[in-house]
Amino acid sequence: MDKPPVKMMDPTLAEMGNHLSDAMKILESGKLESEQGKERRKLSWKDFPGPLQGDGQDVVSILQLVQNLMHGDDDQQGHRRMQYVGEQGHMALLGHSLAAYISVLERERLRKLTTRILSDTTLWLCRLFRYENGSAYYHEDDREGLVKMCRLAINTHYEDYATEGFTLLSSKHPVIYQSAACRPGLGQHLCSQLGLPLSSLCIVPCNTMFGSLHQMDVALLDKLIRDDRESGKLPLLLIANAGTPGAGHTDKLSRLKELCVQYNMWLHVEGVNLATLVLGQVSSTVTAATKCDSITLTPGPWLGLPAVPAVTLYRHEDPALSLAAGLTSSQPVEKLRALPLWLSLQYLGHDGILQRIKHASQLSQQLLEHLKTLASIKTSTPSPPSVFSQDNSAPSSGGSGEGYLAGERDILDALNRWLGEQLAQQVPLSGVDVVELEDEGTCVRFSPLMTAAALGTQENDVAALVEKLGEMIPVLSCTLRFRQDFKDEVLQKASLSYIEDQSWPGLGGVRYEARTTDLDEDKRQYRVERINSDLLKKLMELDTDLYFSDGPEFCEEKNCIFIGMATEDLDVAELVETIVSIGRDIEESGKLFENMTEVVRRGIQEAEQQLQKANEEKLMEEGVLRQIPLVGSVLNWFSPVQASVKGRTFNLAEGCLDSTEPVYSVKAQMIKEASLDSPKSVAKQFPGQKLFRRHGAGSDSVSDTSSVSQLEESFRETAHVQAIDAEEAEVPQEHHVHIVAEMALSDQRVPEGQETESVDTLR
């Protein structure tokens, strides 16, 4: 059989493909512009804003600028990581370039080409997702398709809406029903785009007594519809979920469809579980979506295709009403929205599409199987387990702390938020994030259908996620258990205040309170702020696994110290004792420095007076003649003066000058006593040993004496030495802080101007 003749490719198309390939290589290379290039670009932009200067720039320079703007100043490759763009992603990007090129074709050729692209893509999607005899609307905003469906329903129920407009709606108000589990802000967006009041939106609660907590209450919906009809309103449209945004639950679509047929309502379905319609075995709850009036698909995140539109498939027999609702357009350029998807679907093929959806489903099932083996983990799943085992698609939401009291929900939310953030940071390819569910609270969500294709998530990433989860669960449990112990220990200390902040993921908060009561409020607050600031720095310098912080960014309490997660071997009592000991030491040191300025000022004044008096006595002893130049030298030569050295010592504790005679007389005794009274040697910390760990509780505890006790002993001994300093009035010879001014009266004449040198030095 002869092969069909190979047609020559359009040179423009070939060049476009090559340019796209080169551009992607430059943007994905991660090579930033050289320093020389940056300097040259700065100089070239000196007189012109932006790159519009000279004769223009080449493609490589422009792409280099884009690459620099994309990555900024990040030097680490991990910080520059973006969505994984494979070959199928390149096809989607090529579609946008082709759309611009095709739009310049002659009108008739453009019409034929766009019609072919639109019809092919619609046919493929309808067959892939089992939606027979459907039409398609392609849109950038994934909410825009629902807006068009509402317009179509309004035009269907209000025949003269195109001419009469809102006056028809005022006589019989339309009502749009949506589940309480729908994505936030969806109903408000609809009302805003349609020009309807918020009273036209009815939120249907989920089941509270029977069935899943995330499925729409069908019986209550039936009652709401009957009540609206009796009050003269028009039930217009119902929004159902095939995979709620939070936990991936699917509404009872078959029952909802029957209800909509009964009351002549439009049923629209959206959700991530619609992706599983391409699989061979699909849950009957999801299959019911193929019988609904419209569904919205988001193939971009499902298949890892960047910048492809969302698609709303719908069934309607009147083309005029579809045109009135804006679902069809006579502009060929608008039909080119489907071009990136048209190219990507052909590149992947049926097997490639099926493989990606199946892979994401298997990842979800893999995680669910492991979660069942982990203690203290509650999975937010539909009541029948078949939703996960057969569907293999719903996002898995896990929250730690099963079985705790309801009053601890805020604490559990904080711990789970920390858990989700840590997992997302340590296993970034897993794509986990944190969600807020109305009944379960804060949970960690794993939704591979929305993230796996873009991030390239594999089974080993799920295994790493499970491993990290197993490491963090004991930490969460210990922290929750030690929170009350920490609070009790803090409340027993008069110098500490316990800070109640249930949003903090850790042991809790504490504040060291100054014991001085003779200060006004402003000065007291300043002292508390300074003490706690220094205390936080000291604690952060300790060799411990604990995390110390000044608290959440928007914490109402100020001047606090917050302690992070705890481990099994934490000694809470010694942790609190250490905080008290260091805080007391800082407070006592602060008092000394606060009084230092006044003490030094008085001491300098007294020193000046005594030095002046000494100079006068010197003048009386030596006589006036010895102060005259030349004459004094001759007198000193024939009759030297035997002057005695009178030293002075400045006692900072008492703020006075004393003679140095007693100091020198007992110098040897002081050295001996100081060596005897020196602090006891603190037991050295063994290699790998951490503070605040109970002996025998962990492998790091290798000494019978707690390292925290060693630290506190050193603090107590230091405080003992300072207490001796404070008693210098009774024993002036011991442990002085000295500033010695030696005033030696020599037999030589002192030149003028040097009499005050000692005073200047003292200052």
Total helical elements: 27
Separation of the first and last Cα atoms? 108 Å
Number of strands: 18
User: If strands are numbered along the chain, what order do they take across the biggest sheet?
Assistant: 1-7-6-5-4-2-3
What value does the Rg take, in angstroms? Answer: 40 Å
Helix content: 40-55%
Beta-strand residue percentage: 5-15%
Shape: elongated
Structural class: alpha+beta
Major sheet, described briefly? 7 strands, mixed
- Low-pLDDT sequence parts: 43-48, 75-81, 385-404, 674-684, 698-763
Look at the structure and give the mean pLDDT.
Answer: 76
Can you walk through the features of this model?
With 763 residues, the protein is of the alpha+beta class. Helices cover 49% and strands 11% of the residues. It contains 27 helices and 18 strands. The strands form four sheets. Strands 1-7-6-5-4-2-3 form a seven-stranded mixed β-sheet, with helices on both faces. Strand 5, helix 12 and strand 6 form a beta-alpha-beta unit. Helix 5 (107-128) packs parallel to helix 16. The longest helix is centred in the last third of the chain and has 51 residues, at 572-622. It is elongated, with a radius of gyration of 40 Å. Residues 699-709 have a biased composition (Low complexity). One of its GO terms (biological process) is carboxylic acid metabolic process.
Q: How are the SSEs placed, and which strands pair?
A:
Layout: H1 11-29, H2 35-44, H3 59-71, H4 87-102, H5 107-128, E1 135-139, H6 144-157, H7 161-164, H8 166-171, E2 174-179, H9 186-194, E3 201-204, H10 218-230, E4 234-241, H11 253-262, E5 266-270, H12 284-287, E6 294-297, H13 299-303, E7 310-314, H14 319-324, H15 332-335, H16 339-371, E8 377-379, H17 386-389, E9 396-400, H18 409-426, E10 433-437, E11 441-446, H19 448-455, H20 459-491, E12 496-499, E13 508-512, H21 521-541, E14 548-549, E15 561-563, H22 572-622, H23 631-638, E16 646-651, E17 656-659, H24 661-665, H25 667-676, H26 707-726, E18 740-743, H27 757-762
Parallel strand pairs: 2-3, 2-4, 4-5, 5-6
Antiparallel strand pairs: 1-7, 6-7, 8-9, 9-11, 10-11, 12-13, 13-15, 14-15, 16-17, 16-18
Helix pairs in contact: 1-3, 1-4, 4-16, 5-16, 16-19, 16-20, 18-20, 21-22, 22-26
Biased composition (Polar residues): 379-397
Domain PDXDC1/PDXD2 second: 407-480
GO molecular function, one term: carboxy-lyase activity
